[in-house]
């Protein structure tokens, strides 16, 4: 039984710009009537069977033909929003789709707000929150890997896993509660050791989920690589060689005429954002200091530091000093110019890769090594299932804390009625990941992040 919200909504659901076709979605109780009016008001749409497509003209209220279109009729609840939906597919220019939307609104629809279709889909039980967020990620996905990850989540695997955890927590609560409520009765019971074993198992699963979340973020947002090193070791050349070999978008930051300072490449489905930090300092005027500060921030915030050396010059004291200062970060040593001479790998915390930007050797290895260095810190999930956004991760972390707290309390011999509080909290918090216990303002916050028309 769909929840009926006050008004029928309409919005352009195709990306803005000049596509070949544009689609206007109309959803709500009046969708069929409004769609029928748009098609000329002769009942073609109102009487159409569900999930059928009809060719016709879009008419304005004076009966003038605006545009040829295909009308897709879908009766609720078997639709994206769970409500009656009519989608009008017309010519893609902004004028055509805009006019059709205006006409739909003139006939009683209201322009949908950002995320409103998905919000209705959620309210009608069509999607859960983690899936809704995945749809949002799909819209914004930056790389193939991110797309696949979002698609996997959209299919509801997060929901399954979280639901499983919640069911197990609830069962544990039930056992403890039974002990409390029927202390004398002869019922199925678990002893304290069994409580502990179960809670430890759950905590372990949650730990996995939280640990692998980092990897999810890397796939979603990409990896930032700071190219560092002394002048003339070959940083710019390496950046160019990497971009020349990969799918790349190179952006020149104004003021740096000679070098590209930033490029985005893809390595095996992972987006790498390469920044030549020296490139940021190339200007020798007033902006210099800004450049230096920015470079420092970028190095500190980078997922991987690629520290470049020139083999003929070897490792010098300034190189050692830099690496020592940044040893808490993930780093890779790039020994460049090996076409001229080689050098032994120095005894440092970072692994080394050998390259020649000039000859083009070792460049593919460098790309892979950068990816591996970043991912090594973020282990893969057993079944490749990740929480991808900060909200989900912090909820899982909170639930994990609750379980640890429960285990401590159990070890200390805290009474049963206090024990269940932590478990109840963990259960509630996990529900927020999928939206089972979602509060209204949270929904607003999440759905308002959607693009218009989703
Ligand atoms: P950056 O200052 O670290 O960015 O260094 P550049 O990329 O501007 O390179 C400095 C000089 O070294 C240029 O003349 C490059 O052609 C040269 N160079 C860069 N990489 C190599 C390499 O692998 N082998 C050789 N022989 N020369 C290189
Ligand atoms: Zn350079």
Automatic annotation (TrEMBL):
- Binding sites annotated in the UniProt record for K(+): 232, 251, 253, 256
Report residues binding Mg(2+): 236, 257
Give its E.C. classification number: 3.6.-.-
CDD domains the UniProt entry points to: trmE, TrmE_N
**Cofactor field:** K(+)
What cellular component terms from Gene Ontology apply here? Answer: cytosol
Biological processes per GO annotation? tRNA methylation; tRNA wobble uridine modification
Binding residues for GTP, per the UniProt record? Answer: 232-237, 251-257, 276-279
Taken from the record, one Pfam family name reads MnmE_helical
Q: Where in the cell is it found?
A: Cytoplasm
Main EC class of this protein?
hydrolase
The note on the cofactor says: Binds 1 potassium ion per subunit.
Binding-site residues, (6S)-5-formyl-5,6,7,8-tetrahydrofolate: 25, 87, 126, 454
SUPFAM superfamilies, alphabetically?
P-loop containing nucleoside triphosphate hydrolases, TrmE connector domain
In this protein, which residues make up the domain named TrmE-type G? 222-375
Q: Which UniProt keywords apply?
A: Cytoplasm, GTP-binding, Hydrolase, Magnesium, Metal-binding, Nucleotide-binding, Potassium, tRNA processing
Its predominant location is cytoplasm
Which sequence ranges are marked TM in the entry?
A: none
Which terms does the record give in the GO molecular function aspect?
A: GTP binding; GTPase activity; identical protein binding; metal ion binding
Subunit notes for this chain? Homodimer. Heterotetramer of two MnmE and two MnmG subunits.
- Family statement drawn from the similarity comment of this UniProt entry: Belongs to the TRAFAC class TrmE-Era-EngA-EngB-Septin-like GTPase superfamily. TrmE GTPase family.
Q: What does this protein do?
A: Exhibits a very high intrinsic GTPase hydrolysis rate. Involved in the addition of a carboxymethylaminomethyl (cmnm) group at the wobble position (U34) of certain tRNAs, forming tRNA-cmnm(5)s(2)U34.
Q: What is this protein called?
A: tRNA modification GTPase MnmE
């Amino acid at each position: 039984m769909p929840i009926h919200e006050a008004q029928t909504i309409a919005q352009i659901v195709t990306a803005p710009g000049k596509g070949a076709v544009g689609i206007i979605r109309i959803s709500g109780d009046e969708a069929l009537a409004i769609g029928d009016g748009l098609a000329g008001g002769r009942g073609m749409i109102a009487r159409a069977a569900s999930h059928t497509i009809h060719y016709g003209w879009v008419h304005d209220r004076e009966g003038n033909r605006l545009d040829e279109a295909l009308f897709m009729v879908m009766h609720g609840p078997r639709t994206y929003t769970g409500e009656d939906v009519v989608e009008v597919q017309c010519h893609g220019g902004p004028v055509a789709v805009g006019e059709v939307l205006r006409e739909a609104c003139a006939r009683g629809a209201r322009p949908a707000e950002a995320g409103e279709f998905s919000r209705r889909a959620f309210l009608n039980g069509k999607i859960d929150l983690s899936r809704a967020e995945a749809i949002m990620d799909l819209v914004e996905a930056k790389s193939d890997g991110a797309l696949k990850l979002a698609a996997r989540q959209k299919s509801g695997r997060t929901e399954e896993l979280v639901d499983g955890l919640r069911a197990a927590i609830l069962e544990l609560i039930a056992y403890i509660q039974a002990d409390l409520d029927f202390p004398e009765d002869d019922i199925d019971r678990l002893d304290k050791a069994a409580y502990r074993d179960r809670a430890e198992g759950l905590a372990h699963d949650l730990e996995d989920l939280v640990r692998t979340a980092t990897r999810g973020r890397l796939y979603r947002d990409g990896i930032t690589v700071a190219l560092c090193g002394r002048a003339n070791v070959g940083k710019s050349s390496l950046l160019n060689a990497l971009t020349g070999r990969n799918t790349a978008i190179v952006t020149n930051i104004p003021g740096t005429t000679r070098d590209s300072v930033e490029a985005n490449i893809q390595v095996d489905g992972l987006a790498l954002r390469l920044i030549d930090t020296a490139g940021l300092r190339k200007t020798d005027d007033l902006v210099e200091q800004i450049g230096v500060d920015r470079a420092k921030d970028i190095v500190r915030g980078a997922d991987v530091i690629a520290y470049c050396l020139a083999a003929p010059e070897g490792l010098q004291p300034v190189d050692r000093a830099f690496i020592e200062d940044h040893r808490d970060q993930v780093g890779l040593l790039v020994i460049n110019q090996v076409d001229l001479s080689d050098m032994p790998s120095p005894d440092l915390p970072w692994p080394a890769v050998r390259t020649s930007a000039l000859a083009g050797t070792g460049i593919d290895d460098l790309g892979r090594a950068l990816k591996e260095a970043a991912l090594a810190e973020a282990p893969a999930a057993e079944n490749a299932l990740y929480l991808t956004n900060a909200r989900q991760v912090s909820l899982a972390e909170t639930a994990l804390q609750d379980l640890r707290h429960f285990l401590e309390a159990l070890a200390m011999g805290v009474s049963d009625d206090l024990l269940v509080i932590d478990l109840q909290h963990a259960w509630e918090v996990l529900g927020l990941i999928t939206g089972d216990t979602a509060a209204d303002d949270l929904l607003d916050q999440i759905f308002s992040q959607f693009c218009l028309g989703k």
